[in-house]
């Protein structure tokens, strides 16, 4: 018993030390490879249309975040850049927008009893360390093949991971729909629960007991993906569901803790150099703080598998969007020949499809909430009529 | 959403809506001043984090009351 405690203590100390060492360059965890030319500190002029655009993007991103635990970053950063913001400002402002949004979302979902704070902290701390590994890989690729090689790597990672995980989740959700059950159970998670490599950690809210050596690699993978494609949740949430056996609603709520810690540490590192445009942050928050709470309420209306369905749909549409961007990078690497008009068309199409992914997710969430509301109202009417008759 | 007889916090929604609007106006009417200092970095990083925190509290409270006023409330608690 004493030996187990000792192992646990030393594991936590090692994790804590690595976490502290990882913080200083966390601000680079953006998903976009920033070259020296991209780090420009120039604040854009914001007009009413631009402000409205940011509020709407924020609302949709918030709605999806509140529901599936992450998302939005893949649209918000390019969205700000399309208004003319330099890459570094867009990345920094996205980070600064992420932590208050996730904080409010996590608080709401904690109140609904869906959040395992302990699991969230373990995942978040290891994700922060994972970001460093991701940055290291990115830098290695950047040094070897330049910006186009780095972008190509990001896009290929995006398309491969999102297509595989997205399709798996979609089929899994379909299985639950066909069986007319709340959700499916993960066989892999059942097997992993039987692995008892010390230290073992109890998670009371998630009602599971998993080895430290399973959670930490999962958190690392989440962080690595966050550093590569800016949306770590696309690995974190499916990982918690299929590897740890956590219910989808709890996994998506717990992911908000990861987003909060990464957003906060990332904000501090960027803000120390003065790259955060607080005006864009607050405009996005104006929409996303409403969206994130609406998304959180939405999780109490739907069946468990809906989280998988929404996440899979968004992941698959986003992977198409990034797939469209691949020929541009092949052109930059000299592998393919394209004219400037085609490159511009491909880039614009890619961004529009990303916005479409977010909007589709929003429609599914709101549509299902509305449908459930109508069902409940109909039930209430039947009960009221029945009572009147008696 | 289903119980229409629940009290709707209309007053709180209006009050926090006004506070939120005032906070937004205060910042945007002085946007040059604010961005000038926040862009300096260093200790101003604390101001950036605190501003984001303050707005998340103010505007978050407004958003919460707004949704409740519109009758959007959680249906079931806990994981089922």
Automatic annotation (TrEMBL), chain A:
**Membrane spanning segments where?**
53-76, 119-137, 152-171, 224-244, 282-302, 309-330, 350-370
Predominant location of this chain? membrane
What keyword terms does UniProt attach to this protein?
A: Cell membrane, Membrane, Transmembrane, Transmembrane helix
Lipid bilayer topology: Multi-pass membrane protein
Keyword Membrane assigned to the entry: answer is: yes
Q: Does the keyword Transmembrane helix apply?
A: yes
Q: Localized where?
A: Cell membrane; Membrane
Q: Which InterPro entries match?
A: TM_pro_TauE-like, TSUP/Inactive_protease-like
Into which family does the record put it?
Belongs to the 4-toluene sulfonate uptake permease (TSUP) (TC 2.A.102) family.
What name goes with this protein?
A: Probable membrane transporter protein
From TrEMBL, chain B:
Origin organism of this chain?
Answer: Desulfofundulus luciae
User: So where does this one cross the membrane?
Assistant: 12-30, 42-67
Name of the molecule in the record: Multisubunit Na+/H+ antiporter MnhB subunit
Keyword list (alphabetical) reads: Membrane, Transmembrane, Transmembrane helix
